[in-house]
Amino acid sequence: MKQTPETIIILDFGFEGIQKLARSIRDKHIYTMVMPYTVSVERIMQEKPVGLIICADSNVARTAAEIDRFLNLKLPTALIGSAAEMAGDTVAENYSCDTDALCRFCLEKCGCTGNWKMENFIDEAVCDVRAQIGNSRVVLGLSGGVDSSVVAALLHKAIGKQLTCVFVNHGLLRKNEAELVQEIFARHFEMNLCYVDASERFLNKLSGVDDPEQKRKIIGHEFIEVFAEAAAKVDAEFLGQGTIYPDILESIPLDGNPSGVIKSHHNVGGLPENMKFKLVEPLERLFKDEVRAVGKLLGLPSELIDRHPFPGPSLGVRHLGAIKRDTLHILREADAIVTEELLNSGWYHKTWQTFAAFLPVKAVGIKNGKRTYGYAIAIRSVNSVDAVTAEVVRLPWELLERMSERIIQEVDGVSRVVYDITAKPPGTIEWE
Ligand code: XMP
After folding, report:
1. Which atom, in ligand 1's list, is nearest to the CA of 352?
2. Can you name the CATH fold of 8-109?
3. Ligand 1: which of 429, 431, 432 to mutate, judged by most atoms within 8 Å of the beta carbon?
């Protein structure tokens, strides 16, 4: 049965950590939405909110009138930070930015019952998707990343065989990745999965290209072409998208968008003009941890759901310099060893991203009593909250030594393994 969440709207007058606040209240099963202070009251009322939380940092100065238009809605309202000083005569209450206190406000003053649960979300999303799609078909680009995997599982639950997923193998995937995706989606879930092996096409285009941005452009461009070709055969009216709530929040300017329209994101970017799809984006209300929870409830394995973030251009930006098939193979094998050792030691889930990068320099070594002259592999392990900054993880020395020994022994063509100890900044997480 469709159950409407009891919505609390958090109005952003310039408040650092507003996403974190919204998320922490959602953790207590109360549904929150963030809107900029420029939003229209009509837009707010569309959501039928049961309460408001108005937030402003102490350095933000707005007029009483700007806050009063929300107070005039006569909804239970909590004021945070300097919002309290800015408000005119008011019955709204002042609160500290404390999740427990704010949850009490939502439960006691706004009448929330705490019904924001992922089980309920799934039921509701299934209803919404069925109503939106009717008898039409949906095509979805499946990358094997968390968001596209969860959208695939959710759409499949709602519309079954009306969904076709397109999985493009661009030749830059990690070891066993194509098999894993096919195993889960085609065999376990029995989805319509269109698997396109375009490795040769991508690797030919990338031949001799060593500039990182150029590589990214080629990979992105080819990807769109290959996907569009496959999608055109599906005869779908809708395109599924793994848009999530932070994508949307980050595309809303705090100032300058008086209607506060929520949809200004361009996740679809770049599909050819003649491919006119309507969008279906069932995760657009969810934060990343909620997406993971939904994925688990839908039966996706931890192997997919709890994976480290992985760049769109894949191994393409972890293989420094021009990509050749034999050196790409070296990187893929080395990366698989790093991941396997990380999982076996229990360190995988304690790090944000840990991976191998291929360095196109050669060094002398000795293997089985013989002189070798092979390439270098760098291991990088970082922790981060949002990838904007990152600190180096001090992986146990024994673990690093084991990775290094195995890479040298098992991967032909490598004679050195080094550990990257550069934080971000000044480094970036990826090497290219
Ligand atoms: P950097 O290297 O900029 O990476 O510190 C920050 C985060 O973004 C990922 N990353 C990418 N993701 N396309 C993507 O989809 C890209 O071209 C790309 N480059 C970096 C990186 O893995 C890290 O999580």
Report:
1. 24
2. Rossmann fold (3.40.50)
3. 429
